[in-house]
Amino acid sequence: MAEDQGKYNIKAISNLLGIQPGTLRAWERRYNIIEPIRNNSGHRLYSDEHVAILRWLIEKVNKGFTIGQAVGLLDKGDIHEETNQSSHYENRLQTLTNELKESLISFQTSKANVILDEVFSLFSIEKVVMDVFSALIEDIGIMVKHKRITVAHEQFITHYLKGRLGIIFNNIQSDTLLPKVVTVCGPGENKELDLLIFTIYLRKKGYEVIYLGTNVPLEALKIVVQEFNAKYLFLSCTVSENIPKTISFIDAINHFSNDIRLGLFGNGKKLLLEGEYKKIVIGSTKLEWDEWLTTSFNKN
């Protein structure tokens, strides 16, 4: 067990690693993987070694292991050696991500392609999409907000990333035995890259997905859902101002068909939905998606 001093509370761990506090507590109770240090107030505190262990486990889960399998691997091996190797690759990934961002900001698509080719040679598609592309999207949004780059830069980079994500999506095979899914940006939503990443996540799970993008009228969406025989429909709502229109949209879909199951892509803490609407919020991180799918998506 770690002897170094605890310095991260459970909220900090959640933000740092992208794991829900409830999930972390459940792992601790069931698998006894770590024992948090308690401060004078009785609150959990986590050390750097705890962080290393949790990061290692989350990485294994993200690669397709169950948490039980990951804990089994942890019990058999020396985490420190593997953690050092993992740290090396994480540092390389961060360097390549920064180089990719700078090449795109300077409109050097050929250089960006070379960098991405190296990234894909070192890391899985899922890791590149979830870590590299998601980080780029967030960074570009921040840079535009603070006027460090122009909207024209953002549109150029968005177009480039959308093209690369589209190639990835179209090259992932789906399982025809699984239910069909439609994903679409909700009313007023014009930021589609995050939803496209979620769509790729679903395709990696094996689901046959149609991605419709932005500005799809309700009547057109009804036709697609019916013709495609979709069993699940996911809408994005990432801006709080769009909540009223999104709720009306959801109500209209429910009135159209009680058989289709709905999911709402977006940050639940920001959306502040209540009642039945809160239950369909799937979140905006992979761990939230995994948890939502496990508890809701696979119910018959």
Automatic annotation (TrEMBL):
Residue ranges constituting the HTH merR-type domain according to the UniProt record: 7-76
SMART domains on file: HTH_MERR (SM00422)
Keywords, in A-Z order: DNA-binding, Transcription, Transcription regulation
GO molecular function: cobalamin binding; DNA binding; DNA-binding transcription factor activity; metal ion binding
Coiled coil: none
Name of the protein in question: MerR family transcriptional regulator
Source organism per UniProt: Anaerobacillus alkalilacustris
